[in-house]
User: Fold this.
Amino acid sequence: MVYTADNAIADFEEHLHDWPPPVGRVEALELRKHYGGTTALDGVSLTFRGGELCALIGSNGAGKSTFVDALFATARADGGSVGVDGLDITRWSSARRACRGLVRSFQRVRLAGQLTVWENVALGLLAGDAALPGWGGPLAQVKGLHEPAVRALAWVGVAELADARVAELSFGQRKRVSLAQCLAARPRFLALDEPVADLDPGATRVVAKLLAALAAKGIGVLIVEHNLSFAFDTCDRVVVMVSGQITLDGPAAEVRADPRAVEAQLR
Ligand SMILES: Nc1ncnc2c1ncn2[C@@H]1O[C@H](COP(=O)(O)OP(=O)(O)OP(=O)(O)O)[C@@H](O)[C@H]1O
Ligand SMILES: [Mg+2]
Assistant:
């Protein structure tokens, strides 16, 4: 199949029909994290619902990435709890959370430099689908991975990069590949740390469409963003973080109109 921008989104929407059921509710309660003398999270409580597109904004160092780390156990919180559909997962490892369908991307993209682009996306497939065979050798020899990996790359508009090496990619291309990797894992809840940083306006619009399709299917998405127009235009809800605390949380239109939101971004 030759993918174009339009049929790639249509293909994604069709693919969504076969996904596992979305998480209904992700609940962070009083999350705390200290780095030496720095309080990165000062008791953050937030609940995310299935089908909600939520943006977390705030100045550099506000604690946004640390919050995502604590939610996904990429870095252990010092206190507080995390629940999924009423189940306490605070002690679960990040891998176990991923098996439950909690998928995240990183602000500084983490791709395996020794693998090709499609092989990196195949890692997402393996993470998200227990039905696929376990792998103990080169990914290229595992049947059934190449086609769906290229398909996930097409959703984000970079199918032509499938055989490239990570080192050959621009920062924007890496961001898009990391999103394809997340989507290949068929998330039931998704958090993206600065998904449109380094993306051109066309690619940014594609990401907005993919997020809207996820939300329409009931999947909750949390994005951390400095691109405020993207955050406010794409999301239903915007949360503002200042110095490890939530200072504003509400419908995007209300938060956009609140001078404290802009002020928080400039601090
Ligand atoms: N691994 C770490 N070791 C030490 N300090 C850290 C670490 N990670 C984060 N911090 C500190 O915690 C605070 C919050 O950082 P965090 O990266 O969560 O902010 P952020 O809101 O994501 O910022 P940015 O918008 O720049 O990505 C900052 O003071 C940062 O220096
Ligand atoms: Mg960050």
User: Anything to note?
Assistant: Residues 88 and 114 are 37 Å apart (CA to CA). The domain at 5-266 is CATH 3.40.50.300 (Rossmann fold).
